[in-house]
Write a structure and sequence with these properties.
The complex is a heterodimer of chains A (about 250) and B (about 425). Chain A is α/β, with parallel strands linked by helices and about 250 residues long. Chain A has one domain (about 1-255): Rossmann fold, CATH 3.40.50.300. Chain A has helices at about 40-50, 70-75, 95-110, 115-130, 135-140, 150-160, 180-190, 230-240, 240-254; strands at about 1-10, 15-25, 30-35, 55-60, 65, 80-85, 90-95, 140, 165-170, 195-200, 215-220, 225-230. In chain A, strands 6-9-10-3-11-12 form a 6-stranded mixed beta sheet, with helices on both faces. With about 425 residues, chain B is of the alpha/beta class. Chain B is built from 7 helices and 22 strands. Chain B has helices spanning about 10-15, 25-35, 55, 130-140, 370-375, 380-395, 405-415; strands at about 60, 80-85, 90, 105-110, 140-145, 155-165, 170, 175-180, 185-195, 195-200, 200-205, 210-220, 225-235, 240-245, 250-260, 265-275, 280-290, 295-305, 310-320, 325-335, 340-350, 355-365. The radius of gyration of chain B is 21 Å and the shape is globular. Classes of the chains: A alpha/beta (about 250), B alpha/beta (about 425). Chains A and B meet through helix 2, strand 7, helix 3 and strand 8 of A and helix 5 and helix 6 of B.
């Protein structure tokens, strides 16, 4: 589904990604872990087309298409989604209107019927149950005045509405209490299907107890230093990141 | 100080007609203050960015009585609470106040007794504005609203001022609102029109102790019109005055809200101006924290396209002894074209030491992070821009309590921000 080869990217001329290789197939759940400032979020934002980052080399194929030939909105309509660590507030645009607009843009792109406000009302009421969101959040302005946790809930609601093929979730657990994390983790699991894939970006292994990855990658200094199965997450929980960095440094020196 | 605009005889022209008979002493006093004065010029600091030269060279005749079809202006919540004025004259057949609760006095100024001594009394001691005096000297009619003690009026009241001009005319709408202790009211004041004209409305608001007035003000004057408005509000102890001024029309408009807050009073003074073409919209506000413990909140937003120009001057005065004052002011401006221009100036004067005051001004384009967020959800760049522009303006409309008015204004904002193609954004 996604094939990343020797990807490099920079922000304001500073290299942040220094050669990433990663293969994600349908049905898989991958976790990217690493210390703060390692380039984890950058990888996600580059994949969804954030304009602040410049791709300086390498190749990314998404379902066989060159990802960088597609504008950010095209990527979204083609099934790529990122749940952001710090979602933006948009005053004056109601959450419900925004969600319906996003849904209809994607439906239009896929040749499905668009939903009118009444039909969408029924549709969205099913979806908010999945993420246990209170109805009042639909009428409020998009993310405006939402707490950190409410914003994360709203990101997963958007994911549930858009049903992406590949969802990248950046630090989903930050700002969430244990109960909310369980609810959102369960929601993400319910949305996962054999024809879809997930890329979980996280500093803390905690979330991987709910959303269990088959593959765990440690990213540091803009490179993937180590890839293994989910047992790596448990090891990182016990031992932290330093040993991976040291191991990589020793390997590089040899 | 006022300076002479060469060749200007506008004031003399406007004052030359017969003086209306009622309120003689009030009018004489205003005429006396106006004697020898001329229109302000851009050399006056207060009028630096708003050039009245084009006004000075115009002639505005007296406003004839006219009839208009008001069907398009009726709002369901307020069909039975409306007073309509056409070309400054009360239109009894277009008005209907049958749903106004007993006890509320709600009638045209022309029916008011001169014993209504509060007219013109706000801000005694403070200098009267030139256009305020002009209104006092020449107003024909307007509305008087008196809400007695502790009466909470459930239905909003609707004041419609419609001007229909074939040749240039001048109108001087006058509004007096008095809420007695503990009274509550929602008031919608709208100005519409077609053709060339000058409108100089004056609104006087008295909010007594513990009373609450919510005041929506919609300016949709004709594209050929000039609108030079004055609002004066005095808010008693623990009273609340919340106003929202929405400026869409007029080639040149100026709003001068003046609000004085007594101890523990609350005010919000929000504004939105949506400008295009060569429109000019100026807001010069004055919030006077005269006593301790009052709070004020001001959000003023402008969207400026074409070669239009917005001006905001927000003065906040915290008097000596007005401890515990909380004053928040924000001026936010969106420029949609290269030639558009905004001049914004917050002006805080604080003479007390225990206060919480903040102000901020921002002028710019849409935030690229916000654009990207919407694009990352599948909206193309144009749709994202239009949705954000709409949201920037609609933000000011969100808390309008009259649902039909809120919907109508959202539709208007959608049309003006090219957001109509995005469907129902309600």
């Amino acid at each position: 589904m996604l094939s990343i080869k020797n990807l490099t990217a920079s922000i304001n001329g500073t290299p942040v990604l220094k050669g990433i290789d990663l293969e994600i197939k349908a049905g898989e759940i991958h976790a990217i872990m690493g210390p703060n400032g390692s380039g984890k979020s950058t990888l996600g934002k580059v994949l969804v087309g954030h304009p602040a980052y410049e791709v300086t080399g390498g190749e990314v194929l998404y379902e066989g298409r060159n990802l960088f030939d597609m504008a950010a909105d095209e990527r979204a309509r083609a099934g790529l989604f990122m749940g952001f660590q710090h979602p933006i507030e948009v005053p004056g645009v109601s959450n419900a209107a925004f969600l319906r607009l996003a849904y209809n843009k994607k439906a239009e792109a896929e040749g499905r019927d668009e939903l009118d406000p009444l039909e969408f009302d029924d549709f969205i009421h099913e979806k908010i149950k999945l993420v246990a969101m209170k109805e009042e959040f639909l009428d409020r302005s998009l993310n405006e005045g939402f707490s950190g946790g409410e914003k994360k809930r709203n990101e997963i609601l958007q994911m549930a509405v858009l049903e992406p093929k590949l969802a990248i979730l950046d630090e989903l657990d930050s700002g969430l209490d244990i109960d909310a994390l369980r609810v959102l983790g369960d929601a993400v699991n319910k949305l996962q299907r054999p024809d879809r894939a997930l890329l979980i970006i996280t500093h803390f292994p905690r979330i991987l107890e709910t959303i269990q990855p088959q593959f765990v990658h440690v990213l540091s200094g803009g490179r993937i230093l180590k890839s293994a199965g989910k047992e790596l997450a448990i090891e990182l929980e016990d031992r932290g990141y330093d040993w991976v960095l040291e191991e990589a440094a020793a390997g590089g020196a040899r | 100080m006022t300076t002479v605009v060469a060749g200007s005889n506008l004031l003399a022209d406007l004052l030359s007609g017969p003086r209306p008979a009622e309120w003689a002493s009030l009018r004489e006093a205003a005429e006396l203050r106006l004697a020898g004065r001329e229109l302000p010029a851009t050399r006056d600091e207060d009028w630096k960015y708003t050039d009245l030269k084009v006004l000075a060279s115009s002639t505005f005749g007296p406003a004839p009585k006219a009839t208009v079809d008001i069907a398009g202006h009726l709002l369901p919540e307020m069909v039975g609470t409306r007073q309509v004025f056409v070309n400054g004259h009360h239109a009894p057949h277009a008005s209907c106040a049958s749903a106004v609760p007993a006890g509320v006095r709600y009638f045209p100024m022309s029916h008011a007794s001169e014993a209504c001594h509060t007219l013109g009394s706000i801000g005694n001691g403070a200098a009267k504005g030139l256009f305020e005096d002009l209104n006092t000297a020449r107003f024909e009619d307007g509305a008087v609203i008196l809400v007695p003690k502790n009466l909470k009026v459930a239905l909003p009241l609707h004041l419609l001022f419609i001007t229909k001009a074939e040749t240039p005319i001048a109108v001087f709408p006058r509004i007096l609102v008095m809420l007695e202790r503990g009274a509550e009211l929602e008031l919608v004041e709208e100005h519409h029109g077609e053709g060339p004209y000058l409108s100089c409305p004056v609104v006087e608001v008295h909010v007594a102790e513990g009373a609450i007035l919510r005041h929506e003000r919609v300016q949709r004057e004709s594209p050929e019109a000039y609108h030079l408005g004055t609002l004066k509000a005095e808010v008693g102890r623990g009273g609340q005055y919340h106003s929202r001024t929405l400026s869409f029309g007029a080639r040149l408009s100026r709003q001068q809200p003046w609000v004085r807050l007594a101890e523990g009073a609350e005010a919000s003074l929000d504004g939105l101006a949506l400008l295009e073409g060569a429109q000019v919209a100026d807001t010069h506000s004055f919030l006077h924290h005269a006593e301790p413990g009052a709070s004020s909140h001001q959000l003023h937003k402008c969207i400026v396209d074409g070669k239009a120009r917005a001006i905001f001057n927000g003065r906040i005065l915290v008097a000596q002894g007005a401890q515990g004052t909380d004053a928040q002011q924000q001026s936010r401006n969106l420029l949609l074209s290269e030639a558009a221009r905004v001049d914004t100036k917050p002006q805080l004067e604080i003479y007390a030491d225990d206060v919480k005051c903040s102000h901020g001004a921002a002028v710019g384009q849409l935030d690229p992070e916000e654009l990207f967020y919407l694009q990352s959800r599948g909206m193309n760049a144009d749709d994202a821009r239009n949705l954000l522009t709409y949201g920037f303006a609609a933000d000011v409309l969100t808390h309008i309590p009259v649902a039909s008015l809120r919907r109508a204004l959202r539709q208007l904002v959608m049309a003006r921000t090219q957001a109509t193609s995005l469907g129902d954004l309600g």
